[in-house]
Write a structure and sequence with these properties.
Layout lengths: L2 E3 L1 H23 L3 E8 L8 H14 L4 E6 L3 H9 L5 E8 L8 E4 L2 E4 H10 L4 E7 L18 E6 L11 E3 L1
Parallel strand pairs: 2-3, 2-4, 4-7, 7-8
Antiparallel strand pairs: 1-9, 5-6
Helix pairs in contact: 1-2
């Protein structure tokens, strides 16, 4: 018997990526300080983003991260403040789930678009030299995802539930 799963399949895929990232980064955590900001913005096109953010936060904690800020359905100001709270001595993990912006280069929050480029530039300007950007990108299927190149001098891991330029299908059949 085959079961069909929609967006949940993709949410689980990014949670798996979060676990891998958490485990990878945890091995460095003994010598370095890593902090995470997990943002989930639910909407009619991303109804599961609220839950995806919770599960990603939990996965990062299980992977060894101890400082994880979880923001769900919060305004832009709180998201930017959480990013600004990461000290320059820390590595940063940023997980974003919510409706993709029309250009596919950010996530629409309650009161504006948080562009992926803004996230990375803000971290770089704060002196953060190592970052991981994890994006749940299946929420606007007609928009290709556009991830930024790493800023000059920043080590950056990028992971998404779909590759840049691709879109998610409606369902995935599991056997």
């Amino acid at each position: 018997m085959k079961r069909k799963l929609g967006h949940t399949t993709f949410g689980l895929r990014i949670v798996a990526v979060s676990l891998i990232a958490g485990a990878t980064l945890a091995s460095h955590a003994m010598a370095e300080d890593w902090q995470a900001v997990v943002i989930g913005q639910s909407s009619p096109v991303a109804p599961r983003a609220f839950g995806d953010a919770f599960h990603a936060s939990d996965a990062l904690k299980r992977g060894g991260m101890t400082d994880v800020a979880l923001l769900r359905d919060e305004p832009m100001g709180k998201a930017l403040a959480a990013l600004d709270a990461i000290p320059p001595t820390a590595g940063a993990v940023v997980y974003l789930s919510g409706p993709l912006s029309r250009d596919g280069a950010g996530v629409d929050l309650k009161d504006g678009t948080l562009a992926f480029e803004t996230v990375m530039t803000r971290l770089q300007e704060a002196g953060v030299a190592r970052a991981a950007l994890l994006v749940e990108a299946c929420t606007r299927q007609d928009t290709p995802l556009r991830l930024p190149a790493p800023p000059e001098g920043m080590q950056m891991m990028r992971a998404a539930s779909v590759q840049p330029g691709a879109v998610c299908g409606d369902t995935t059949a599991l056997g």
